[in-house]
Each structure stands twice: as C-alpha cells, then as structure tokens.
C-alpha cells in the first residue's frame, strides 16, 4: 500500500453534492487510507470473540459464516429488546437533516453516508425490512432493504467511520444518538468476526495484561521510572511512587497511552509531580493499568469485562476511592457505565480530597474522581504554588473531548486549571468547543495508521478551528484532557496546522508547579529550555 | 419518483373519497366507519408503539450533556442543559417538547476559501418546525368546537386570538396560513436542499402531501366553498356520542377532508410520525446526569467472564517479584 501522501490543500477540496445515484443504489467503495486492517484471529480467540479468520475488507469474499444473516437478524432482535435507545432511534427519525453537517467525518469527506442520518439509515433500512409491518409491505416506499453482503460491507465501512462522538445528538430534536447506533452496528458485526485489528489487539492485550498497550507489570514500572529520571533532571527531586500497594488511600488509574508515547508521557510526569508535591497516599496498579476501554468499541459485554478490573483492584488493595487520569472515552465509560456494570462500589468511601477536605458528592456512588475536578479543587483552595510564567512560551487553546463534554459535562474544571497555570489562553470559536466540540477524528479505535486519510478528514474541523486561533492569536499549543487526543491530534496538527503542539492539562500543571526543594527550573516538562529563563539570565 | 408516488397516492385518496361519496353514495362508510376505524387504529397503534418502546429497558444512563456538570460547589452547573435532578430534567424536556430546544441550536456549516470552515446561525428549520407543529395543535384544538355542545369558552378565546388580524369574511385564521406556509417550506427544503433531498424517502413526502391535502380541503371549506356547518356538527356530534348519523346535504369536500384525516390517523403509528410520542422517551434527553451519584440499574446485567487478578499474578509473578512489585503469593 502506498503511503498516504495527499496534500492538505487537495484534501480540503471537499464536494458536498451527493452523487446522482440514490444512496441505496450506490455500493460501498473501499478506498485506500480510509479503512483499517481487520482483526487478527488470535486476538479474537484470546477474549472469546467468534469467527476469527484472516480476511480483508478489499476481498470480495469475506469468508462469512454460512448463517451470517440469521446471526445478524437474531442479534438485532436481541439488541432491540435490550436497548430502548436502539428500538426508539430506529423508529422516530424524521430525516430532517439537522444532524447532517454536524459530523466531522461528513464535513471532512462530503460522503453523504457520513451524514449521521444516513449512517443510521444503513441499519434502519434493514430494521424496517425485517422488523416493521410497513417495511415488510411497502418495501422500498417505506425505505426498507434486505440484508445483503453489500449492505454488510457498507455497515463495516461506515460504522468504522464514526467515532461515537455524539455531536449530532446535541443537535437532534429527538436526541437520537448515533453513538448508540454505531455501537449496535459494531456489536452486530462482532458477532460474525468483523472487527478492526487496531481494536482487537488492544482489547486482547488489555484483557490479559491489564492495558491496551500490553505493558507487563515490570514494564509499567520501568516506564514510570524513566519519567522519574526526567523529573529529577528537571527539578532535582527524586520521586518514589508505589505500585499495587495495599492500604493506599487512593488508587490512580489512567489510560496506558500516557505511559508510552509523547506527548502523553509528559502528562504522566505532571501527575507524578503533583501527587508527590501533595504527599498523596496513592498507588498505581499494574493490573488495573488501563483507564480507557477499547472493549467499548466491540460489544457491551467486552467493555464490562475489561472495566471490571478497576473496582476489583480497588477492592483487593482496600483503597478508599479512585482517582482517574485525563482521558475522553474512559470517562464516558466510567461515568455512564462502570457503576451499572460492576458496582455497587460500596466497599469504598465517598471520595474526599485529603488535601482540601472537599467531599466529591457528585461521585458518591461510583467513587471515582476526575483529576481535573481534583486539581481544580486544589487550586481553588490555594493548595498549590504555581508559577504561570513557566508556561509563557505557550499560547494555549483547549480542546474539549467529545466524551467528557457530551457524556459528562466537564467543561469549566480544565479551563479553570489552565487559566491558573498559563498566562496565555484563547478559546476556539464558540460552535467548535464545549458541547459542540469536534472529535479529534480518530476516536473509538480508529487511531490506526493505515486509515490516515480518514483520520485527517475527520480531524479537519477540529484542526480548522485551531488554525483560526493559531492565525489570530498565535496559539501554539492545543491542550486537552484525553489520551487519544494526545496521541492523534499531534498528527492532525502537523498535517493541517504545523506549528501547534499538543499537551495534556497536567503537563501544563507540571510546568507551573513550584515544588518544595526544587532547583531553579531551566527546562520545561519536555526538557526543552524555557526561553524566558534564558532571557532573564542575560539581564 | 420519491415525490411522485406519494403525491399520486394522496391524489388517489382524494379521488377515492370523492368517488365514494358522489358516485357510490358511501357517506356512512366515509363519514362513520372509516373515521371510527382510523381512530381505533391510531389509539391502539400508539399504545402498541409506546408499550413496545417501554418493554425495552434503558440499561445505561446515557444523557447527552450539553452544559457544565454538577461538580464542585463553586462551579456553576448548567441545570437546564445538564440536569442532575428530575425537576430539571422535566424543564429540559419541556423546552425540548414545546420549543424544540435542540433544533434551535442548529448551525449551518460552510467550507470557504482558505480552507476555512464557518458555522452560521440557521434557524429556518426551527422556525418552520415550530410554526408547523403549533399551528397544527391550535387548529386541532379549534376543531373541538365540532365535538362539544355549544362552543366552550377556551375555544372561543383561541379562535378570537387566532383571527385577531381581522382580515376577510369569514375571518382569516393565522394558523391556517402558517400551517400551509410551513408545510410548503418543509416540502420545498426537502426538494431543493441536495443533501436533504438525498436522505428523503417516499415516506417523508407522503405525510407532507397528506397534511397539505387536509389543510387545503379545510381552508376551502372555511373560506371558499360553502359547507352546511349545522349538518357537519350534527355528524361530528353523532360520532363523539356514538350515535352516528349522516345528515343530508353535506358537501363532498367535507368527506375528502375527513377521509384524509382518517388516513393520517391510521398511518400515524406506523410511520415516522410516532416521533410525537417517542420524543418523551428519548434516553439522551429524559435522564438526569447523576450516574456517578446514584447507581443506575440495568435489569439484564449479567455476570461475565473476567481475567482475575490471581490469573494475572500467575502469569507475571516472577517478573513482578523481580521488579519489586508486591504479590499475593510468594
């Protein structure tokens, strides 16, 4: 496969006019760089997913099980009975089109099947044809279709071109949530082994080793020790965190991506420095070493299986409550699913900040606090000494993650932190932030490399809003509270808005945090020289 | 084709009523049997739908949050857009149901030179939607004058408000004009906006033509073609009191109007029009964002196979010990 090499200016020539042929008569075309490799059979076997086999989307023959239609239709019937959202969203859409130009994939590709309404119609047409009276009698007039291999291929292509970001559901007059539709579509496809390699691999790794990256316990420890060396270089302070320690007050869980690759690693350094400075009685776990949940992009059951480790580990270690790191989908899963799946977490206490005494009543049942809530509370109570000027070389804007904004409402906490650790902060345009924020374009397991065109197209609206503040205010850093953002927005920025870096909020906290006994800082968290400090030495 | 088939379907319905009444003398069929059947199908169908939705549980708490959450006491929660209590959920729902709050957010995304994406305010669909639904409701309420002895005061008030412009004789009802205008707009945008045309099904055009037919036949009767109102009221009172009568001399246009309404009623539960009932049950809107505070129960939650800590430690015990990570079994 040739490397993705399209120029940004060419990629931005987007036609929004639909093709002449009706969507039902337009077969799916698998374009290079727009889809992912299929899952490896061994990864599916590891977790017990059925029908693992070697196949590729471009093959004519997908080696489907003989009774695949029956499996899918029975699966649809079961899911319709289990989820009111699914049953309702199949029935009530009026196709008003308000969602159409809200999807980052539609805005970036112009492909009409990326309009949320049509993405849902892919499934709805089969629903009508098989489960409704009107559809069975009136067929095409009622928008009904048979389930064919062509339809299935369309599902696979387009349900893996949706990041379940829920932006469309903000604008839908009935709150129809395409994330629900895509989740059902993906769950159905998993019943016949149609999964992505980039999802299947992390799921298997997370199941067996505790985290998506497959980091084994000693590797987690050595990764963190590597950060500790950097922190010592930076501050002169030696930090000694604990692992799998029973009796700690707090269990800290964060996405494993932050232990592995830049710039997430700098965020992890920020956590370590903050906790050390507070003298927090906390522990990392190598077993519950993943906050994120790629199982969520396969089936509900798999998501629950992966998630179960967090409470199980909290119970084993006997902690009082859990603190969670910066991540997007992790927090939707935690906020809206974890307690339901694996609760009640009645073996813990209502989270209480040991530093400020603040009781987090908003998390009194699920017992887990977002680090942005925790840190904002610290700053509000003047518990941190901060030198904002250490971030003066950064001109910051903030990207709301889809899931923390639309699945939680964590909007002000990170902004409050940023404004207390940075002097230069500018918001992106109103319609691209908060509940209307745009996805990075690579969520829900689409952050592979073989689908780079898809990612750049999906990331276009976000990047375009960054470009606006970059040109207008000189913004050079895109802050966020999501590990997938940190991993993927760097590529999107390099492509669309060169010159803008990406960082987690706690990297900025780490920069600004004045630690007891630290040496004069001449470098930032990335061990790059602090320009102002150099300047002041010359004065 | 997508527009022609539903258009001719409505034309055929009109002709069917005209032929039935004028040539077949089927006043009783069109004036009594079909309306009764249609209302029965409507009621049974809506109940069936709602029960069917209700039977599928809401396994997870999945509100779409559109504002600041409740977290720290000094951060102002957006209670309306991100409610954490039932009361505020009701407020959010009321705004949604009565004023189409989410549609009001609508913005139009445009790609300009640069490339530069812009997001402009676009309230046309919201305005047309409001005009359409509210007019329809008010017109429906006005029609209760045909189903009550005398004319109840609230209906008098609505009628006089609706005709306050004092134009023409009989006085023009604003809602009549609004409804026709809104239906025309909704049809026109489906035809003229390429992306909306692309997503539209025959099932999207049919109700528009049907409602247009109902409105036109109604307007004709009120303003242009004289209909014997006394006889019409005799018929409608007969229907509601379950002592149906077919008075002589009711113009056939009335039967067309009534037949189209009957079709709309019968069609309602089996079409997208059920959004009227469905909007109340949408879990992304009618749930409080309190799943961290109160455990949401999934009735079909079941135990799953997991990779336990013991299994994990068995896999990695030596490596953990070598790295100085505590283990359960030495």
Uncertain ranges of chain B: none
The oligomeric state of the chains shown is heterodimer
Question: Which class of the largest domain in chain B in CATH terms?
Answer: Mainly Alpha
Helix segment count of chain B?
13
Architecture of the largest domain in chain B, CATH level 2? Up-down Bundle
Spatial order of the strands forming the largest sheet of chain A? 2-1-3-4
Number of domain units of chain B: 2
Give the number of helices of chain A: 23
Q: Could you report the average pLDDT of chain A, rounded to the nearest whole number?
A: 96
Helix residue percentage of chain B: 55-70%
Report the major sheet of chain B: 2 strands, antiparallel
Portion of residues in beta strands of chain A equals under 5%
**CATH topology description of the largest domain in chain B:** Fumarate Reductase Cytochrome B subunit
Count the domains of chain A.
2
Supply Rg of chain A: 24 Å
Order of helices and strands of chain B: HHHHEEHHHHHHHHH
Structure write-up:
- The complex is a heterodimer of chains A (about 550) and B (about 325).
- Chain A is mostly helical.
- Chain A folds into two domains: about 10-30 and about 50-195, no CATH class; about 200-530, no CATH class.
- Chain A has helices at about 10, 40-45, 70-80, 85-90, 105-110, 115-130, 135-140, 150-160, 165-170, 180-190, 195-210, 215-235, 265-280, 300-315, 330-340, 370-380, 400-405, 410-420, 450-460, 460-475, 485-495, 505-510, 530-539; strands spanning about 250-255, 280-285, 320-325, 370, 395-400, 475-480, 500-505.
- Chain A has a four-stranded parallel beta sheet with strand order 2-1-3-4.
- The longest helix of chain A is centred in the middle third of the chain and has 19 residues, at about 215-235.
- With about 325 residues, chain B is mainly α.
- Chain B contains 13 helices and two strands; from the N terminus they run H-H-H-H-E-E-H-H-H-H-H-H-H-H-H.
- A two-stranded antiparallel sheet of chain B has the order 1-2.
- In chain B, strand 1 (about 105-110) and strand 2 (about 115-120) form a beta hairpin.
- At the A-B interface, helix 3, helix 4, helix 6, helix 7 and helix 9 of A face helix 2, strand 1, strand 2, helix 8 and helix 9 of B.
